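Tutorial handout. Part one gives the primary structure; part two gives the three-dimensional structure as tokens.
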Amino acid sequence: MTKEKNVGIEILRSLMCLGVIGVHFAHSGFPVSVTRNLPVPIFMFLSFFLCGNKILGSNKSDLARRLRRILLPYFLWPFFYMYGYSVAQQLFHTSNPTFNNLSSFELQLLTGCAFAAHFWFLWDLAFFTLVVYGIGKLKEIKKLNRGFVKIGGGISIIVFSIFMQYSLLNWNIFGNLPYEFRYPFGRICEMIPFAVGGLYFSKIGIPARYKNIRLGIALSFMGLFFVLSVFDIPRPSKGFGYSGIGLMLQTWFLAAFFIIFPFEILLPDRMRSSVILISRYTMGIYCCHMFVGHYIDEMCRIKGFDFHCSFVKSLLIYIICWFLCRLISRIPFKLCKQMVI
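Part two.
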């Protein structure tokens, strides 16, 4: 079961990408009613589950490859947004503030949170990547007892993050900052449990003696996820959208289910190939979905059309984004492919 071709991970990535679209454009109903705030934490968890150990190994080539994958979309897509929104102003004669507020382009590139505010995630992802690489480079860390680093160190960091959230210190520090800085900085503390969880789950894995009961372990994690869905753990009274112990545990349990569940055994080869193809452009879909979604909203407004099914709207945006990303990936320039994959 390789992490790179784990079918469960590919399924989860596609579902969470659809969930992100639902949160931004469907607002209610499926998939929002199911995924809620889970997509971004899941992405952070999976990112460090898949790549965290390579970065922690302090290999410069792994770090460069990782940062290139994050920062190229981060810096290139805003130019498409700027041009696309400018075209929208002329095409739709709109007063939509999303299309009209392009004066903050420099802030978009600086913090990832202006007219394409969802790029804050890539900003935080790059930040955590550098932090993990820095930890790997510290000689003092390498001399510490491995058991402490694997268990005690991770628990300590997570406890600190939870304390900052529930004591409202995190909110008090960042809550009054300008919009463009508030969320990238405020969400660093909230993302810590997901990044650390992914990194340490990758290190621990499934002991060999338990691999014969993968199905039972996976279903146990899913059961715990549903228990937390019914009996919600109170969240901090103020936060930046991803705070609380309940969300942390739900993210861990749901990700663990999809990582462990033996999809590669239960699904036929053709279906596994289809899943991998569908999830191939998750990065590109995440980056361009706001652009595509706003265009669809404006066209529907002009035609007087309203989506009565939030799932259909989310799925339509996903499909259009997928084909757009596939088209971009076929452009014979390496940078184009790196924008979407």
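Part three, for discussion. Residues 8 and 263 are 6 Å apart (CA to CA). The chain has a mean pLDDT of 88.
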